[in-house]
Design brief:
The protein is α+β, with helices and mostly antiparallel strands and 608 residues long. Among the domains are: 197 residues, Aldehyde ferredoxin oxidoreductase, N-terminal domain (Aldehyde Ferredoxin Oxidoreductase,  A, domain 1); 137 residues, Aldehyde Ferredoxin Oxidoreductase Protein, subunit A, domain 2, CATH 1.10.569. Helix content is 43%, strand content 13%.
């Protein structure tokens, strides 16, 4: 089968048994790989209602049909599980040589179940699996542990690992690779920690099967050249996503003081312009010719890789106005293996709770020394850090009703770095993201700013569904990075062309959107199954954006309109083939070949 191996490596940590699962070609044609393959495997393998920290919760590391092939930014790997942060489907992607080596080891995915009694790591080479002792790695930060693994196995391997945050089950612990690549915001690293699995080291030498290698290379070469010649390439290389600090300030969407405002007077102290002056290096993922990892020397003189999300969430959102100090907190989070977006939200939430005198232990805005301490304490679940490690949703429920109004999350996942008081389309993107509030599925805010900023229109919802299908469906399942298209305008047609050349099956953007629709409906079904039902309020953004208008900037006085948002959500459900509750309709499921889902859902809810 060209483009895929047709095999999944299944590893049980409890019994230390290893087996191959052969998948029918129809699975790949309907789910592609990456996110699509991950949610299909989790649906089939996970016991209904399993506790995320149970040995029976599966961890999936999945590639797509373009992984490890020399195509633009194809060095991504998907990590997925049932989330300990949200209780629903959780995933993330990260650029890593682990993607390259997983594909070349002869598998489309690795599935891990069970739990070891003592710390171990997995060494996988061309299908051979070794269970290795990790007692000497347990407790080490991700940078130190990776150095030890590189000394043991050499630099020509792929490494995925967790830090103290994952080991101690911080609910938004991530999986880290290559000292700064981090993925799995909804606590995928904590699930790895619950299994006492410190790391996965992969080495592969098998050449992936491609239907038409010469044609693939021709198309990929053309795409690479288009990227280099694009109008925005030079500025992108200089600033990468860090350019967004100034853009967000100008458009009043820069998260400030726990998303109270969309502008910050001190934004220049964390801007891309300043970063450019301080930059000492640039890093990227495999097969990328538009690297986005900008490196500066942090407050301690060490290197820290920055992007917009971590700088905004650990800068303006907690009022920390020194880029070197922001970089220090970011590096520390990467070492601990804890998500910077959820961390920035959790710190800001507690700072506001402290300001309102709803909690006993004080934490002032921008208190650098205390913030540094809490990053480590959250990762080790010590003192106040143990509370911070629970995430915004659980902290708010613990404090009480008033705190729920300024808890910035959707479905339990903290909102990433765009304030939406005056951005209803982006608010809907957060509301309907399949893992909780994350921007990767649909960054509609750029379209919104250029067109109908304050509108609640059908056209905007149609654009949102399109963006989700492309970003969260196609890119997350291929699995490749979206930035060549988003940032420098690479034509989307290159992706179905590359997929056709790789697989020998004819693909179009429309057929890829059908796959995306199937994946989104299956993810929604997974949530319904795990929650035992559904409430459409789970698709609403934080109350703050409805209740408390902006008091600064060009959109002073603006807030979201609840009734208009609700009508947008109705439109979204209709376009997805879901009913007014947000539950997929029976005929829509059948149309997407999800008949097997119907049997499960009709035991839980009434299907329309």
């Amino acid at each position: 089968m060209n483009g895929w191996w047709g095999r999944v490596l299944y590893i049980n940590l409890t019994s230390r048994q290893v087996k191959e699962i052969t998948l029918d070609s129809s699975i790949y044609l309907e789910y592609l790989g990456g996110r699509g393959l991950a949610v299909k495997l989790l649906w089939d393998l996970n016991p209904v209602g399993v506790d995320p920290y149970s040995p029976y919760n599966h961890l999936v590391i999945a590639n797509g049909p373009l992984s490890s092939l020399p195509a633009p930014s194809s060095g991504k790997v998907q990590v997925a599980t049932k989330s300990p942060l949200t209780g629903g489907y959780g995933d993330g992607n990260l650029g890593s040589m682990a993607s390259f080596h997983l594909k070349r080891s002869g598998y489309d995915a690795v599935v891990v179940t069970g739990a070891s009694k003592k710390p171990i790591y997995l060494y996988i080479e061309d299908g051979r699996v070794e269970f290795r002792d990790a007692e000497d790695l347990w407790g080490l930060d991700t940078f130190t542990a990776e150095d030890k693994l590189v000394r043991e196995h050499g630099r020509s391997v792929g490494i995925l690992l967790i830090g103290p945050a994952g080991e101690n089950l911080a609910r938004y612990a991530t999986i880290v690779s290559q000292k700064g690549r981090s993925g799995g915001r909804p606590g995928v690293g904590a699930v790895m920690g619950s299994k006492k699995l410190k790391a996965i080291v992969i080495k592969g030498s098998r050449e992936p099967p491609i239907a038409n290698r010469e044609e693939f290379q021709r198309i990929a070469s053309e795409a690479y050249n288009k990227i280099l010649k694009s109008d925005g390439y030079d500025f992108w290389i200089r600033q990468g996503t860090m350019m967004t600090i100034v853009w967000s300030q100008q458009n009043s969407v820069l998260p400030t003081k726990n998303f109270r405002e969309g502008v910050w007077e001190e934004y220049e102290s964390i801007s891309g312009d300043l970063m450019e002056k301080l930059k000492v290096d640039r890093r990227g993922c495999p097969f990328c010719n538009m690297q986005c990892g900008n490196v500066i020397l942090d407050d301690s003189g060490e290197e820290s890789e920055l992007d917009y999300e971590n700088v905004a969430m650990l800068g303006s959102n907690i009022l920390l106005s020194d880029l070197r100090r922001v970089a220090e907190i970011n590096k520390l989070a990467d070492k601990m293996g804890i998500d910077t977006i959820s961390l920035g939200n959790s710190l800001a939430f507690y700072m506001e709770a402290s300001e309102r005198k709803l909690v006993e232990e004080r934490l002032e805005w921008g208190d650098y020394r205390e913030i540094k301490r809490l990053v480590v304490d959250a990762s080790y679940r010590k003192g106040l850090g143990a509370f911070i490690a629970e995430g915004v949703w659980r902290m708010a429920k613990s404090i009480g009703r008033e705190a729920l109004d300024f808890a910035i999350h959707v479905k339990g996942l903290e909102v990433s770095a765009y304030d939406c008081h005056a951005a209803p389309g982006m608010a809907l993107a957060y509301g309907t993201s399949p893992i909780g509030a994350h921007h990767k599925d649909a960054w509609i805010i750029s379209y919104e700013v250029k067109t109908d900023r304050l509108g609640y229109t059908r056209e905007k919802v149609e654009r949102l569904v399109f963006l989700q299908d492309v970003r969260g469906g196609m890119f997350e399942s291929l699995t490749t990075c979206r930035l060549p298209w988003v940032e420098v305008g690479l034509d989307l047609d290159y992706y179905p062309k590359l997929l056709t050349a790789a697989t020998g099956v004819s693909w179009s953007l429309d057929s890829l959107r059908t796959v995306a629709s199937r994946v989104y409906s299956l993810i929604r079904a997974f949530w319904i199954r795990e929650y035992g039902g559904w409430d459409r309020e789970m698709d609403y953004p934080p109350p703050r954006w409805f209740k408390h208008p902006l008091t600064k900037g060009p959109y002073t006085g603006h807030k979201l309109d609840f009734d208009k948002y609700s009508k947008m959500l109705d439109m979204y459900y209709e376009m997805r083939g879901w009913d007014e509750r947000g539950i997929p309709r029976r005929d829509a499921l059948r149309k997407l070949n999800l008949d097997y889902v119907i049997t499960t859902l009709e035991k839980i809810v009434e299907l329309k």
